[in-house]
Design a protein that fits this description.
With about 550 residues, this protein is mainly alpha-helical. It has a domain of about 90 residues. About 75% of the residues lie in helices and about 0% in strands. The chain is built from 20 helices and two strands. The protein has a two-stranded antiparallel ribbon. β1 and β2 form a beta hairpin. It starts with 9 loop residues before the first helix and ends with a helix.
């Protein structure tokens, strides 16, 4: 999923699905609702908990920064590229059938993630999970919409959204506790009992439904967009290791752009049979809201990916504490949506769609300047709350505007496209901001003198400072300042923080972190040392310094 919240138009997909023509018993409806809640909660919990566990997974599997990004990107890549095909398959072959197929793919992949012996096996298993989620998620929404008629649908969506809010709030805390007290592997195995319960309820109580007017699957478009997204994501992720001007990186980015252009050409030729009909973009409101979704969820996805790293690596938080630190975001998003929807209905969506992103931007700026090493309440808490308020104000009118922009008959496909845009935005955020962080490192480190002296306070593990306030808190050591190298690092820290917002906050604090390791000129390995969480022996400069 997109971090710690649902994509904006899930409710639109539900409302855009025609209901059963025949009446169903209340028992069958309630148990079908329970099945869809459990099914969608699997993907929601998985998306939020993995971010909290990433620093621990990274250290346990000895992964570098690029490989760690692929733990998230492999999942988002398959989910974002194939979710529209999954929705079409549910309409064509049956919503309950595709729902069960999605569970059958997602659950073994979750077990494989929990048992993964190395980073490669974990990334491959995460990709299979993403494919399962691309079938499971849209089928669960359509199955819910088909079960309840227009009179009961609002209540059902309210129950579904309320449980989703509780899941979003509890997931990171529960996941963090499992990481600290059991193992990071337990967060993936947690999906197994949920899958068994969801499948059982769907088999015995959910009725099969399909759309008699469903179009055939657009596999050409799906393959083209998947390859294009994969190539661009890989190219951006390879920049820290190979540099911006590497021929392989540039070639891969070019191939990705070519496949995305071919996707647009395929969709244009397919007309209304396309999985993303380009005629939808004839509406200015639809085009504008999708651009807003792309930018807003890019910022949100990047912030929520890097924030746990900052809390755990810089602030010394445990995984449980990092999950609890994000609790206000989930609670405000979950339980403020109704009030935000009322405001949008009263004053119109334009005001909310303008004020909401501006407030969210203020939250990101506050997050950029928050001191993760200080107290949580005056530092991180206000920034998270402001970001959550901005997102809460934005999402309800975004959903209604997308649905109203194309008419009732196409509201379902329009909502699905908007959800796919939100997921792709999160994918690009993780990959692109990694490249931005590397650029910041390279630019500022290149200005250091070749004879920069060793400033090692603690060298060898990438962990800094003595612990206090329990085993999971640390104090960053004091370092003498005043020479040219220290001043350059502090200037780079402030400049990078202003440049890339909340994600850049981690990049610039990583520059400060370089004061605690053996440092020489033009050391690109410093990027991997901090974000990779690996042993300092990987840094050739540190090796040379220790040898004298």
């Amino acid at each position: 999923m997109v971090g710690f919240t649902r994509p904006p138009c899930d409710a639109g997909v539900i409302r855009g699905t025609p209901a059963f023509p025949a009446a169903l018993s209340q028992k069958r409806k309630r148990l079908t609702l329970a099945a869809t809640i459990l099914g969608s909660s699997m993907a929601l919990i998985d998306g939020s908990v993995v971010n909290i566990a990433l620093p621990t997974i990274q250290q346990a599997l000895h992964a570098d920064a690029a490989s760690t990004q692929w733990i998230v990107n492999a999942y988002l890549l398959l989910l974002g590229a194939l979710v529209l095909v999954g929705g079409s398959a549910a309409d064509l072959y049956g919503r309950r059938r595709i729902f069960l197929v999605g569970i059958a793919v997602f659950t073994p992949a979750s077990i494989a993630c929990g048992l993964a012996p190395d980073i490669t096996a974990l990334v491959v298993s995460r990709a299979v999970q993403g494919f399962g989620a691309a079938l499971l998620t849209p089928a669960s929404l359509a199955m819910l919409g088909a079960t309840f008629d227009e009179h009961e649908r609002s209540h059902a969506i309210g129950v579904w959204a309320g449980v989703g809010a509780l899941t979003s709030a509890a997931g990171p805390v529960l996941g963090g506790w499992l990481v600290d007290q059991v193992s990071w592997r337990a967060i993936f195995l947690l999906n197994v009992p949920l899958a068994i319960a969801a499948a059982g309820l769907a088999i015995f109580f959910a009725l099969e439904s399909r759309d008699d007017k469903a179009k055939r699957l657009d596999w050409n478009g799906a393959v083209a967009v998947a390859i294009g997204l994969a190539a661009i994501t890989w190219g951006l992720g390879a920049i820290p290791a190979s540099g911006f001007h590497d021929k392989t990186v540039l070639g891969t980015l070019g191939v990705g752009a070519a496949f995305l252009l071919s996707f647009v050409a395929i969709e244009a030729r397919s007309h209304e049979r396309a999985m993303m009909p380009l005629s939808l973009y004839h509406s200015r409101n639809f085009s504008g809201t999708n651009v807003l979704t792309l930018l807003l969820y890019f910022a949100l996805g990047g912030a929520l990916y890097y924030l746990p790293f900052g809390l755990i690596r810089l602030g010394g938080y445990s995984a449980t504490q990092a999950g609890a630190a994000l609790l206000p975001f989930a609670l405000i998003m979950g339980f403020g949506a109704s009030f935000a929807g009322t405001l949008s209905d009263r004053f119109g969506p334009r005001l909310s769609l303008t004020a909401g992103p501006l407030i969210a931007a203020c939250g990101l700026v506050l997050l950029a300047f928050a001191d993760f090493g200080g107290s949580y309440w005056p530092g991180v808490f206000p920034a998270i709350c402001v970001l959550a308020v901005g997102m809460t104000i934005t999402v309800p009118p975004l959903t209604s505007t997308v649905m109203a922009s194309v008419g009732e008959a196409r509201a379902g496909i329009a909502s699905g496209v908007n959800n796919a845009v939100a997921r792709v935005a999160g994918l690009f955020a993780v990959a692109a901001l990694g490249a931005v962080l590397f650029a910041s490192f390279s630019h500022h480190l290149a200005g250091l003198p070749a004879g920069a002296r060793q400033r090692s306070v603690e060298c060898g593990t990438g962990r800094t400072g003595r612990r206090h306030r329990g085993r999971n808190r640390r104090v960053r050591p004091r370092v003498a300042h005043g020479d040219a190298g220290d001043r350059a690092l502090r200037r780079a820290w402030r400049r990078c923080r202003l440049a890339v917002g909340s994600a850049g906050r981690l990049g610039t604090d990583a520059l400060r972190h370089l004061q605690h390791i053996a440092l020489c000129c033009n050391c690109k390995d410093a990027y991997h040392l901090w974000f990779g969480g690996t042993d300092a022996s990987v840094c050739e400069c540190a090796i040379r310094t220790r040898r004298g």
